[in-house]
């Protein structure tokens, strides 16, 4: 039973690797977190094989869980919760009621609409629709005659698929992650591909297991050790070099952020500190990357986190106040919040050419002339 984790660096070609390395004659199941990921996978498969191979299935993780792990086993789910007549009426993306809410005085109190995890009502709405956010939790909860639903699901998946591949695995947290690990232990062939240093970057799934343990961040080395204990072989060499970023940019990122990244040398580009901010901001050929609220500026800009997955010809990263000393020899990433550091890493690795860096103090001097709202 092959179980592999391929740890990649930014721009190494994670999706490219998955799509070009699969055997199109096998029954492949490729999963990803977002619909944008799915679109990129489908496009790359077409580039690699002329079309999406006939035996290859591509799906978002949520859709996979709903259609393959929940709906076929709804009678077992109903039996588990003692609701034999239950028949679902679809799925919704509304968040389930939180366990606690704040009252009119701002005091945290028990939410009367919250239902405990051992009740079916915890996982469905009043209209008997499944909460998308609790699908993985539901699957992990259900047993039949003390036998986990996971084992039955995995046996079925092994009949229909030869290999399961998951792109951008660092986007999965908590119950989604637990479900992936539980399934992997039962499936014949599983490959997870992702970049550890791009976790905590997306708008959702930014906290908890496997990258945070209670109040402590899980380091790269500890993560590798933990995933190895789960039975995975960890590959840190196949996607160790960025095909996007230049040698100079990779060296600078490694030096300043303490993140190990090297370049394949496919592109050239320098790291340039900006003195003339106006000429950069007015240059439409240079993509501007701001920490947040990119839509508020008259120049074309992206938020650091939203730029994840993008490749541009050249980029200007506008720094925050806490990073104004990035050019100093005394700068250390140890005092930077992990999520901020990872977002900066994403922003600094978008360019296939030059990387411009603008201090917050430099930007603030002219910022008001570019604000549109």
Q: Which word captures the global form?
A: globular
What gap, in angstroms, lies between the N and C termini?
Answer: 55 Å
Which oligomeric form is depicted? single chain
Derived from helix and strand composition plus strand pairing, the structural class reads: alpha/beta
Give the radius of gyration: 23 Å
> Helix share of residues?
25-40%
The share of residues in extended strands comes to 15-25%
Largest sheet properties: 6 strands, parallel
The tally of helices reads 12
Summary of the model, kept short:
With 373 residues, the protein is an alpha/beta fold. The chain has 12 helices and 21 strands. Helix 9 (247-257) links the parallel strand 15 and strand 16 (262-263).
Tell me what the structure shows.
There is one protein chain. The chain is of the alpha/beta class and 373 residues long. The chain is built from twelve helices and 21 strands. The chain has helices at 14-21, 35-49, 61-70, 74-80, 135-141, 149-160, 174-184, 220-229, 247-257, 277-281, 338-348, 360-364, and strands at residues 2-7, 28-32, 57-60, 91-92, 100-102, 108-110, 130-131, 143-144, 147-148, 163-167, 189-194, 212-213, 216-217, 233-235, 241-242, 262-263, 271-273, 287-290, 301-303, 315-318, 355-358. Strands 3-2-10-11-1-14 form a six-stranded parallel β-sheet, with helices on both faces. The protein has a five-stranded parallel β-sheet with strand order 17-21-20-18-19. Helix 3 runs parallel beside helix 5 (135-141). The radius of gyration is 23 Å and the shape is globular.
């Amino acid at each position: 039973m092959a179980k592999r984790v391929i740890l990649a660096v930014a721009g190494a070609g994670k999706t490219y690797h998955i799509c070009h390395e699969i055997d199109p004659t096998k029954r492949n199941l490729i999963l990803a977190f977002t619909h944008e990921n799915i679109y990129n996978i489908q496009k790359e498969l077409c580039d690699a094989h002329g079309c999406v191979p006939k035996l290859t299935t591509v799906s978002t993780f949520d859709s996979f869980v709903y259609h393959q792990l929940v709906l076929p086993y709804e009678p077992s789910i109903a039996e588990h919760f003692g609701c034999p007549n239950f028949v679902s009426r679809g799925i919704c993306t509304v968040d389930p009621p939180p366990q606690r809410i704040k009252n009119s005085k701002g005091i945290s109190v028990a939410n009367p609409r919250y239902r405990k995890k051992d009740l079916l009502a915890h996982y469905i709405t009043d209209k008997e629709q499944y909460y998308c956010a609790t699908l993985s939790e539901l699957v992990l909860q259900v047993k039949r005659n003390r036998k986990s639903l996971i084992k039955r699901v995995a046996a079925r998946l092994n009949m229909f698929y030869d290999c399961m591949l998951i792109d951008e695995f660092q986007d999965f947290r908590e119950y989604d992650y637990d479900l992936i690990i539980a399934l992997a232990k039962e499936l014949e062939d599983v490959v997870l591909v992702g970049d550890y240093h791009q976790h905590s970057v997306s708008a959702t799934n930014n906290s908890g297991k496997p990258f945070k343990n209670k109040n402590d961040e899980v380091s790269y080395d500890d993560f590798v050790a933990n995933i190895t204990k789960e039975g995975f072989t960890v590959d840190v060499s196949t996607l160790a070099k960025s095909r996007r970023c230049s040698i100079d940019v990779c060296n600078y990122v490694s030096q300043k952020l303490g993140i190990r990244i090297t370049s394949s040398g496919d592109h050239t580009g320098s790291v340039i500190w900006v003195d003339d901010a106006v000429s950069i901001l007015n240059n439409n050929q240079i993509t501007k990357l701001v920490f947040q609220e990119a839509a508020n500026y008259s120049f074309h800009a992206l938020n650091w986190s939203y730029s994840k997955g993008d490749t541009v010809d050249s980029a200007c990263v506008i720094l925050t106040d806490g990073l104004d000393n990035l050019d100093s020899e005394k700068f250390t990433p140890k005092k930077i919040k992990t999520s901020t550091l990872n977002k900066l890493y994403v922003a600094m690795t978008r360019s296939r050419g030059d990387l411009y860096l603008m201090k917050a103090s430099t930007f603030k001097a002219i910022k008001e002339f570019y604000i549109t709202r």
